[in-house]
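Appendix C: a fully annotated inverse folding record. The material below is reproduced so that readers can follow the format used throughout the book. The structure is listed first as tokens, followed by the designed sequence.
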């Protein structure tokens, strides 16, 4: 059986891959910021570039903000993978799948942008929209397996 032949599974696959791409971009941006600021994660990283580790100082907020945005993605996109896949496999209408799955993904993209830029209440609103859509999918998926 070709799972990607199912329209809702294709919607899920598309948006999940977009979210993974977004996370990879955040990882690369964090690394690039570390390199630009010469603020590394471990002593061996300093040694690799021929520098001494920085004296104990407060972490750079620019790097920490990127790391927190990625951590938040890990905490939210990981559950979406299972919930969204089960929901997509349950045979929902294509319109509802696009709304819930695409809406979740767009909320997560917005959340990351707002987090990195330090924009409140936008970040919280994007988070709540994403959570609402994820819980909605969860309930529909749970109903379909009962």
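Designed amino acids, in order:
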């Amino acid at each position: 059986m070709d799972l990607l032949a199912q329209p809702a599974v294709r919607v899920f696959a598309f948006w999940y891959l977009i979210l993974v791409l977004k996370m990879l971009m955040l990882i690369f941006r964090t690394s690039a910021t570390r390199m630009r600021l010469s603020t590394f994660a471990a002593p061996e990283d300093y040694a690799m570039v021929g520098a001494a580790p920085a004296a104990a100082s407060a972490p750079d907020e620019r790097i920490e903000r990127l790391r927190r945005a990625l951590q938040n993605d890990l905490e939210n996109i990981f559950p979406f993978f299972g919930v969204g896949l089960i929901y997509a496999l349950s045979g929902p209408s294509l319109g509802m799948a696009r709304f819930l799955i695409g809406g979740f993904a767009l909320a997560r993209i917005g959340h990351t942008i707002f987090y990195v830029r330090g924009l409140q209440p936008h970040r919280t609103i994007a988070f709540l929209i994403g959570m609402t859509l994820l819980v909605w999918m969860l309930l529909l998926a749970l109903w379909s397996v009962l």
